[in-house]
Amino acid sequence: MNVGLVATLVIRFHPGSQPIKRIRIIKTPSPRQKPSRILRNFLLLQRTSANTVLRYLQATNPLLPVLRAILFVMIKSLILVIIIALSFEVQAQPVQPVAKNNKGVFYFAVGSHRIFYTPSTIHVIRSSDSFFDFTLIKVKGQDEGGLKFDEAPQFSYTIGYYFTNGKLGIEYQYDHIKYFVRQNQVVRVKGTIGSEQLDQDTLINPDFFQLEHSDGGNYAMINLVKWISITRSTKTMTLDLMLKAGIGLVNPKTNSTVLGNHRDDKYHISGFVVGLESGLRLHIGKYFFATGSFKGAWANYNHFLIWNGYGKQQWFSGQFNYLVGCQFPL
Prior knowledge:
elongated, 19 strands, eight-stranded antiparallel barrel, mainly beta
C-alpha cells in the first residue's frame, strides 16, 4: 500500500501574533516502504504538536493538569489503533466488509472507559427536619479508575443498526460512569444551615459532606452514527472514522452523607445529558470490530436524592471509550 504523509501545523494563539511553532512534514514513501516507516513519521508529528500545545497550556493556565492526561491518553489510544491497522497491511483484492446487497448492519459492543469531570457546583436542599439550603462551589470529582473488579466496574455498551444505503446509523449507548467527590479539598460554601448563614471556605470531609454516584451516574443515550472509511478495504480489515451525536437521560444511584445523615439511594432519573463522540472503528473480518473513541458530554443532574431532600449538579465530562463487538449484515 502506497501511503503518503503531508502535514503542516501552525499554532497562533492570539490574532496578529507571530506563530510560535511551525511544522511541515512531507513524506511520500516508495511502494516498497514498510508500514513501520509510515508509523514513525506519524509518531513524530503527534509528539511534536502535542508538546507544543502543552507548553502553551502550562504557561497560561496552571489549572489544566487534567488536560495533559486527557491529551496523552487520546494520542496513545489513536496510536494503538493505527499500529494494529498498519501491522495487518496485506496486498489483497479489496472487498467490502458488508455486502452491497445488504440493507444494513446490526451490531453490539461492550467495553470500559475512563472519564474526567470539570469542577462543578453542588446545591443541596432539605426543607424538613434539620433545614438546610447551601451550595458548594467548584467541587472536584473523579471516577473509580476504569475496568476494576473490586465492585461493579465502569462499563459501556452499545446496540445499533447502520443503514448502508443511507450511510447513517442509530444506536442506544449506556455508560455506567462513576463519580466521587474528592475528600479533604477546600471549597467555598454559601447558604443556610438551620439559622446559620454561611459564606466561607470549608474543608470537605465525610462527617460534613460525602457524595458518590458510585453505583453509576449512568448516561443512557440515543445516538446518530456516521462511519467514514479512511483506509482501503481488505479481506482482513477496514478502518473507519466514527462520528456520533446523542441525547439521553441520566439515571444515577447516589450514595450521600450530608451533615451526618446518610442515604443509599435507589436508581432515579435525575436529568439529561447531551454529547458528541468521535474515534476509530476497526472492522476485523466480516463479523467483528473494535473501537476507540473520545466523548465530550454535558450532564445536568437537576434532582438527585439525598436524605429527606434533593440535590442539583452539572458538569462537563471527557470520556475515553474502548469497546469490542460483533456485527451482522442484514
